[in-house]
Design goal:
The complex is a heterotrimer. By secondary structure, chain A is α+β, with helices and mostly antiparallel strands. Chain A has 18 helices and 22 strands. Classes of the chains: A alpha+beta, B mainly alpha, C alpha+beta.
């Protein structure tokens, strides 16, 4: 077993914690524990072995590799594996590791940085140095109950501001923040379909809209009404099921994974590192802190993101794009972003070569026009020699006399910031959604009509009562769908009439059509009971009535006038 | 001694005066035994009283014993340390102990600090530390070695920044390796010099002293420490390594490196020349 | 005429010169006076600081934990940091070990500027200070050195009577002392 001495130290630390001589757990107190063990507890053989491990850079790298790949997998503390980068970052500051060149990179950094924070130094008008690298790491919670949930390294900040940023991140993993994020995504976010399927769906909605439009305003389809309506209904149903099914799957996956990550962030300690030794006043770095907290949760177990298309997409984009993004804004625990003083911060971003995008609160000073004006001002100040960096295949090319380019993304809520940085907003999808909503609204409104066409109710029978007045004809029907039927009187004595069926209340309550009997001016018969009453189906689509449908009932006038009077 | 890593062999400490020890006393003379017992437990006042009572009017051996008890400067380290450990410490014994090791201590401090004023401060501070921990002193331990260790550790604390440059000193040395003499011996030839260093004129002494000081100054703090510990303190490489938390091999390499550096720096002086190859 | 000399001989010669020119040894009385504990040199100052220390209240850190094995909290130790002015603060003991007559202690200083002092002279004052200055007595003084990230380490010899009482203390127990911290400048001398 290699590096036995480190295991010896680790066991001493664990036992010391258990025995009550060490307050902090072996993970959080690893630097101090190592210092103590190395000075007083290590045997001469251990010290010789440590010295051997540090004898050359290659040997040091071997130790670092062993610690990251083997020890971190085998060691366990409170059910979690120690994060190797945290352990190396802590050890890098204590003897003898503080003299090892192989640990140089761990002394100042936990690894890849996240979204940059814009924190102005005192008196600064906005310099590139005010855009500061932020690193975040989640580690299992310290056993010391007095340890804070958020630890600031390299800077000082109000506990309340740090806590708000953490709680905002928690909310984005499970809570109203996540609901807002999911709602934004449903409303206009990229979908997980391949491009061809997305185009097909868009065409489908367009076709449904066209069909609905034709039914509303086009020529009467006549006999083709049924197949057309069936096609429309089927298309619409398929589109809705596809859209809602996909959205539900994405939302469900994101919710479940978010809940898991939220539990992790609640239980773990968040460590934020930002160089500069600043004392932050106000919470204007809340947005980058919250975003980096999310990134830290993801990085603790990136494989878990495969359970959710949405989270995976978001974090993949954020991880790749974070080096070019800066953020500013005070964030509340519910994720809402408050305005901050902005001009100097935008100037700092314009001066920073690496920043291409900036997330800001929703305020006037963050409009694109304002940013362009600031950029113009900078160009004039530097005589056109402001160099903007363009990345081509990973290499940076410098161009002199080019305007600094900075895209601003204004946000009212952290969810919007996540949509922006994750590249999740899709204008075509918004258009499709609007179309889909419109079509669906039409379809929902026309559902009774569609039902009447596709699945007409059974033909009703004429029932009592008939009209008590000789001047009126009541055709009462035993149906629950009066709107689906019409009554037509054909007679050589009386005027031909058509009437809709409706429900009537009162003493003679019934579902009936009421026709007023008017004698024809030119009667061809003298029989007052001459006449045939037809029951016809009505066919409508919203405000449009189609030509009458099939005749499903026929009664003589004499029969109907006598119904109920026998 | 209070420091478990103290070196084992005193080299520089001036030997205590020859004394009549209890082992040389007549076995039947319990008075001397009682007196020695009082001295060994540090009760100097009791020892003086016993000696005065027991040997007050005696001649010969008794007179010698009486004189020895009275003459604190002739006490062995063990008696002086025992008397210093007590509360309150015996001032006469402490005076004798300080006086016995003051010059060697200051001398070593001056080779470390290369500044007389600072050497004096370092020596005083060393004694402060020894006295603050005097209850843990072991009468039969290696007191001069313990003293030098305290002084060296204190000096290392004072030069923490210089100590961090230790690796840089290694790099610096590595870059001049090519200029170092090929042999590993520590011989030097002094050119145009009388056979006896002590017979040098004052001016020559001063000039040679400056050369030595400059060479020592150019050594890193750690190299200076290991060189003086090895050659003046008589510490073994294992002991030096233990003090630094390193192996004997590492300490040995440091010593060799320090010697080579000294030869190189001294070789730049007009007053010394490295030996010709083959000599 | 030349002569071969070794480095060792040169160094011994240089040492002999230094010894010859050494200043006279300090008197024992002066040395003993210089190492008297500060509370003996300035008893009034000690009494005042101990009284102030005694008036400091420790908050009740009552964490209601569902499983106390999973988290623990130490008892904050009142501390008075004596700079140009006196600053009341608390110390969290992170490591406490008494073996034989040796105390090894690590602590974290709360509420003090992030620019940590390189070291402090730590005076342990009996916790009887809580009941009145008259009962406060100094237990021992030792040097604490900055270790890492605001932590200080201390390694001191304990008087036997104290070692026997403190041997069984755990880091989660209330500490039977309060502290007076006086910064020590690095490279003093």
């Amino acid at each position: 077993m290699r590096f036995v001495w480190f295991w010896t130290f680790w066991h001493w630390s664990r036992e010391g914690f258990r025995a009550g001589s060490l307050l902090r757990g072996p993970l959080h107190g690893i630097a101090g524990h190592w210092d103590e063990w190395y000075r007083h507890e290590a045997s001469p053989e251990d010290r010789r072995a440590v010295e051997d491990a540090g004898r050359s850079k290659a040997a040091q790298r071997a130790f670092v590799g062993w610690l990251a790949r083997h020890w971190a997998r085998e060691a366990e503390w409170r059910g979690s594996r120690p994060p190797a980068r945290f352990v190396l970052g802590q050890l890098a500051h204590v003897a003898p590791f503080d003299r090892w060149p192989a640990l140089e990179k761990y002394r100042a950094s936990y690894g890849p940085a996240g979204v940059w924070a814009i924190v102005l130094a005192e008196g600064s008008a906005g310099e590139s140095a005010d855009v500061r690298r932020v690193e975040a790491l989640v580690v299992p919670a310290d056993a010391d109950a007095a340890a804070p949930a958020v630890v600031a390294e390299g800077f000082e900040a109000d506990d309340a501001a740090l806590d708000a940023a953490r709680r905002a991140a928690l909310g984005m993993l499970g809570g109203t923040g996540l609901l807002a994020f999911l709602a934004l995504w449903v409303a206009g976010g990229r979908r997980p379909y391949p491009r061809w399927l997305g185009a097909l769906l868009a065409l489908g909605w367009a076709a449904a809209a066209a069909l609905a439009g034709w039914l509303l305003v086009g020529p009467d389809p006549g006999e083709r009404l049924l197949p057309l309506v069936a096609a429309l209904a089927a298309l619409w149903a398929a589109l809705v099921m596809t859209a809602t099914g996909a959205a539900a799957a994405v939302v469900g996956g994101a919710w479940r994974l978010g809940a898991r990550w939220r539990r992790r962030l609640e239980a773990d300690q968040l460590r934020l590192r930002m160089s500069g030794g600043l004392r932050l006043i106000g919470g204007s770095a809340g947005v980058p802190f919250s975003l980096n907290a999310l990134l830290a949760v993801y990085r603790a177990n990136p494989a878990a993101a495969s359970a959710s298309w949405l989270w995976e997409r978001f974090f993949r984009r954020m991880r790749a794009g974070a080096p070019g993004w800066a953020a500013t804004g005070s964030v509340a625990a519910d994720g809402r972003i408050s305005p901050v003083v902005l001009e100097s911060k935008l100037r700092a971003c314009l001066r920073h070569e690496d920043i291409s995008d900036v997330l800001t609160p929703w305020q006037r000073g963050a409009r694109g026009r304002v940013i362009r004006q600031l950029a113009d001002g900078l160009k004039e100040t530097h005589g056109g020699r402001t160099a903007a960096a363009l990345r081509v295949g990973g290499a940076r090319l410098g161009f002199a006399a080019e305007l600094p380019r900075l895209r601003g993304h204004r946000c009212r809520h952290l969810a919007q910031a996540m949509m922006s940085i994750g590249g999740l907003t899709s204008v075509p999808q918004v258009a499709v959604n609007v179309l889909a909503l419109a079509v669906s609204a039409v379809m929902l409104a026309a559902l009774p009509d569609l039902r009447g066409i596709l699945r007409p109710p059974p033909a009703p029978a004429a029932v009592a009562p008939s009209s008590p007045s000789p001047y009126h004809l009541w055709v009462s029907l035993d149906t629950k769908h009066p709107e689906d039927f019409e009554v037509l009187l054909e007679s050589r004595f009386w005027s031909n009439r058509r009437a809709t069926v409706a429900a009537y209340g009162g003493d003679n309550a019934s579902v009936r059509a009421e026709l007023r009997l008017n004698r024809l001016d030119f009667q061809t018969v003298s029989d007052e009971e001459d006449g045939t009453v037809w029951i016809e189906r009505r066919r409508r689509f919203l405000t449009r009535a189609f030509a009458p449908g099939e005749r499903v009932g026929r009664y003589t006038l004499s029969y109907l006038t006598r119904l109920g009077h026998d | 001694m209070g420091d478990p890593e103290g070196p084992a062999r005193p080299v520089d400490a001036p030997a205590p005066p020859a004394t009549l020890t209890p082992h040389a006393a007549a076995p039947a003379d319990a008075r001397w035994t009682d007196t020695v017992a009082a001295l060994e437990r540090g009760d100097a006042a009791e020892a003086r009283r016993l000696a005065a009572d027991a040997f007050g009017g005696g001649e010969g051996t008794a007179a010698a014993w009486r004189a020895q008890v009275r003459d604190v400067a002739s006490w062995p380290d063990a008696w002086l340390i025992a008397a210093t450990r007590r509360d309150p410490p015996d001032e006469a014994a402490l005076d004798a102990l300080v006086g016995r090791y003051w010059k060697p201590l200051v001398g070593r401090c001056e080779l470390l600090a290369l500044d007389r004023q600072r050497a004096g401060d370092l020596a005083q501070e060393t004694w402060y530390r020894v006295l603050r921990a005097r209850r843990a002193l072991e009468p039969n331990g290696n007191f001069p070695g313990y003293l030098m260790t305290i002084a060296t550790n204190l000096w290392r604390d004072w030069n923490r920044a210089a100590r961090r440059a230790g690796p840089m000193a290694d790099d610096r040395v590595a870059s001049i390796d090519a200029a170092l003499p090929a042999d590993d011996g520590d011989t030097l030839i002094l050119a145009d010099v009388l056979p006896d260093l002590d017979a040098l004129h004052a001016d020559e002494q001063a000039a040679l002293r400056m050369d030595v000081d400059r060479a020592l100054e150019r050594l890193g703090p750690r190299s200076r420490d290991v060189l003086t510990a090895r050659f003046l303190g008589g510490e073994s490489c294992a002991e030096i390594g233990r003090r630094y938390g390193r192996t004997e091999q590492t300490a040995s390499a440091w010593v060799r490196q320090a010697v080579r550096e000294m030869k190189l720096y001294l070789g730049e002086s007009p007053r010394v020349q490295p030996p010709e190859p083959g000599r | 005429m030349s002569r071969q000399l070794s480095i060792e001989q040169l160094l011994r010669w240089r040492l002999a010169l230094a010894e010859t020119e050494a200043p006279p040894a300090p008197r024992a009385a002066r040395l003993l006076e210089a190492v008297r504990p500060w509370w003996e040199l300035w008893p009034e100052r000690f009494r005042a600081q101990a009284a102030r220390l005694g008036r400091m209240q420790t908050a009740a850190f009552g964490y209601a934990m569902a499983d106390p094995r999973l988290a623990r909290t130490g008892h904050p130790v009142p501390a008075l940091v004596v700079h140009s002015e006196e600053l009341e603060t608390f110390v969290r003991v992170l490591y406490f070990s008494v073996r034989g007559d040796r105390l090894r202690l690590r602590f974290h200083l709360d509420g003090v500027s992030a620019r940590a002092e390189p070291g402090y002279e730590v005076t342990f004052v009996s916790d009887g200070a809580a009941v009145g200055a008259a009962d406060a007595r100094p237990l021992l003084a030792a040097a604490a050195e900055h270790s890492t990230d605001g932590e200080y380490r201390l390694d001191a010899a304990l008087p036997d009577e104290i070692a026997g009482r403190w041997e069984r203390l755990k880091v989660t127990d209330p500490m039977p002392f309060r502290l007076i911290l006086r910064p020590t400048a690095a490279g003093a001398g």
